[in-house]
Amino acid sequence: MSEDNEVGEGGGLPESVELAWGLRERPGKGPKRALSLKGIVEAAVRVGSSEGLEAVSMSRVAAEAGASTMALYRYVSSKNDLLMLVFDQVMGEPPPLPGPERGWREGLSAWAWAMRGALRRHPWILRVPITGPPVMPNNVAWMEAALRATAGMGLPGPERVGILLLLSGYVRTEATMSHDLETAFQASSTNEREMLANYGALLASLTDPVRFPELHGLIKEGVFGEAGGPDDDFVFGLERLLDGMEALVREQGRG
Fold first, then answer.
1. How far apart are the C-alpha atoms of 115 and 2, rounded to whole Å?
2. pLDDT for 209-235, tens place per residue?
3. Contacts of 126 (CB under 8 A, 6+ apart)
4. How far apart are CA 48 and CA 126, in angstroms?
5. Which end of the chain is more exposed for a tag (fewer CB within 10 A), N or C?
């Protein structure tokens, strides 16, 4: 669960939300053209996928769509609205998750892995800012899927929503960090094992074992020279989060 646009003042809906849910049609005036909202969003996705989020401007997307920038504004009134539509398009709907008979833990784990997979397939959308709770169609579908997974926990509504926020925040943060590190590895022509070894050597040279005894203990153990599998850190964090949720359920005597 990520992004979305904020609800407008006075309870009004942002234009991007109305467009996504089919509550508003574009354009309202002028002759019929070949350009469409779907085509604009697809053009923006192509630009973002090939050139990064920073390249997704109204003028660049208009050029990709084969239209003028002014024509684009007849369908989407701002870049922010366009980004909300793009994020929802790229995330798509969540895949089918294990049913309640498999237990809430397996359901939430599958949800987290699915969201991580979607973000890692399109890491440029991680730069789309979060401006409010999910209100776009696909993002609401991801929220619904997670809430269904929590249904068997027997927890009150606020705690179920809290679990959703905690888990989605973890997935997004881990996906962002992983992508940033992979980008750094590529830029420096190194790999994780080499980076960790160099980092350990750097720390050893910069720090005093008297002042940083725990750190130097880890350096001596060779911790910074050991690179695990590509998913090890994600698995460790996810399992600890699920352990905490399981302890909460047991503590309240609900499963």
1. 10
2. 999 999 999 998 888 877 677 788 999
3. 119, 172, 175, 176, 179
4. 11
5. C
Domains of the chain, earliest start first: 9-91 (1.10.10.60), 100-251 (1.10.357.10)
Sign of the alpha-carbon torsion through 162, 165, 168, 169: negative
Q: How far apart are CA 153 and CA 246, in angstroms?
A: 9
In angstroms, rounded to a whole number, what is the distance separating the alpha carbons of residues 161 and 128?
A: 22
The angle that helices 192-206 and 213-221 make with each other, rounded to 10 degrees, is 140
- How far is Cα 61 from Cα 67, in angstroms, rounded to an integer? 9
Longest dimension (CA), the chain: 76
d(CA 93, CA 141): 6
The Cα–Cα gap between 65 and 73 comes to: 13
CA dihedral for 173, 175, 178, 181, sign (positive or negative): negative
Look at the pTM and tell me if it is higher than 0.90.
no
